[in-house]
Design goal:
442 residues, six-stranded mixed beta sheet, Nucleotidyltransferase, domain 5, alpha/beta, 3 domains
Length: 442
């Protein structure tokens, strides 16, 4: 029950701001005016904050059915022993899934919503949260999310909702949390590393020579920041070696790596510009638009990604799709043969040839598998099947963009993959509610 009735309705008094007509009247009008500085006494249960059919309740019901024993097993505070009680991981998981659906990707914004918005308050259930706890949970649960993604799709397959007969793959470049000016060449990186090490040694010597020079807490923070910078520059130099190894000898001097995120790479974006980014790949079941595979790389090219995603699906579910749809940039000839050997028919357009001959025409130096693939993509039936990729895989990517997957808020390839999996799991939860209304239990 909720009550917002003040003890005295100050709004019934005549407001001095109300204009009085020039003509004589019986008296001034009595109005109930807004008085916003009055104190209200409110009482309400958290359960009454949101309606019974609210999506936050459905996500909580879904999370409550998950096996989170690996997370619970990591908690050292147990009954009968000392230790501060930990936040229920179901609350944190539900908060991030609902926030992802709502397009919120900032831990600080999520913490603010837990204080101001009814749905987030309902999920938190009176548990106080700060953005550190929320940010750490999002970044450190990559393996759990990957397992939950596999289990959720496997349960849909067992229920006959997802058949994994036809899968489409598409990728998108997502901006990394690294500025363009943080990319430096080898000489500059070596100079930055020397400066960082010098700063670390100087701070340590100040601590040893004069312990009372600064407050201990401030001094420790400065040392951690200096050590962190030294580690990031060292990671950038290590990444630079990998980048140089992939470049021709004449172009190795132009190779650069970021001191902010060593895993980020310059990639060509959708608008034609080049910016630090990651390559996010989703594989989608075309019948249900459920995401069945997730991968994140720091390679700007999609070449060969079809074969790697196909292997991921085999490892996840113990089987492979009957048909596989991907853009021509994803497939190599070896990928087409690999899928055929595993029992999957590839629908990916052959590349245009320099000689000007039709790409569907057979080649004398290719296998029968490649000849059949070219012939298949030259038929109207093959082109019709391939067109499903745009209405499924590209649609799923567009929905992820609309939910805020335009920049990876975390640094590093592992954490970037965790962020991409958050979006995949949130997408699948909403698809599950749409495909099976009975699963939307409260």
């Amino acid at each position: 029950m909720s009550s917002q009735q003040p003890l005295f309705d100050r709004g019934e008094f005549v407001s001095s701001e109300v204009p009085v007509a020039d003509e004589p009247s019986v008296g001034q009008p009595r109005l109930r005016c807004a008085v916003r500085d009055q104190v209200l006494m409110q009482s309400a249960s958290l359960d009454s904050l949101i309606p019974a059919e609210h999506v936050a309740r459905s996500i909580w019901a879904y999370v409550s059915r998950l096996d989170l024993s690996p997370l619970l097993g990591q908690i050292k505070a147990v009954e009968g022993h000392e230790g501060r009680a930990m936040t229920d991981p179901r609350i944190l998981l539900t908060l991030w899934l609902y926030a992802t659906v709502e397009g919120i990707g900032s831990a600080r914004e999520l913490a603010r919503r837990c204080e101001t918005d009814a749905a987030y308050q309902w999920i938190a259930g009176g548990v106080t949260l700060n953005y550190h706890t929320l940010a750490d949970f999002r970044a450190l649960q990559g393996s759990l999310l990957d397992r939950l993604l596999t289990q959720s799709v496997a349960s849909l397959m067992a229920a006959g909702v997802v058949e994994l007969k036809r899968v489409a793959q598409d990728g998108m470049r997502v901006r990394a949390s690294a500025g363009s000016k943080t990319f430096r060449r080898r000489a500059k990186l070596e100079e930055c590393l020397a400066q960082a090490r010098e700063q670390v040694e100087r701070l340590k010597s100040e601590r040893d020579d004069d312990p009372g020079a600064e407050q201990r807490r401030l001094r420790a923070a400065r040392e951690r920041a200096a050590e962190d910078r030294e580690a990031r520059v060292a990671q950038a130099l290590q990444a630079l070696e990998e980048i140089e190894a992939k470049k021709p000898t004449a172009k190795r001097a132009s190779a650069r790596a970021s001191t902010t995120d060593a895993d980020a790479r310059f990639m060509k974006m959708a608008d034609g510009g080049f910016r630090p980014a990651f390559n996010v790949q989703y594989a989608t079941d075309t019948k249900t638009q459920v995401i069945v595979g997730v991968e994140v790389t720091n390679v700007g090219s999609d070449k060969g990604e079809m074969g790697r995603m196909h292997e991921q699906l085999r490892a996840r579910y113990g089987r492979v799709p009957d048909e596989y749809l991907a853009d021509g940039d994803f497939a190599t000839k070896s990928d087409v043969e690999q899928l055929h050997a595993a029992g999957t028919t590839a629908y990916t357009p052959p590349r245009q040839t320099k000689s000007g001959s039709p790409p569907e025409a057979p080649r004398p130096d290719e296998s029968d598998v490649l000849a059949a693939w070219r012939a298949r993509m030259g038929t109207e039936a093959g082109k019709t099947i391939y067109r499903e990729r745009a209405s499924t895989a590209e649609c799923v990517n567009a929905q992820a963009r609309n939910r805020g997957l335009r920049q990876i808020p975390l640094r590093g390839l592992i954490k970037a993959r965790a962020v991409a999996t958050w979006y995949a799991l949130a997408h699948n939860v909403m698809r599950m509610f749409r495909l099976g209304p009975e699963l939307r239990t409260t």
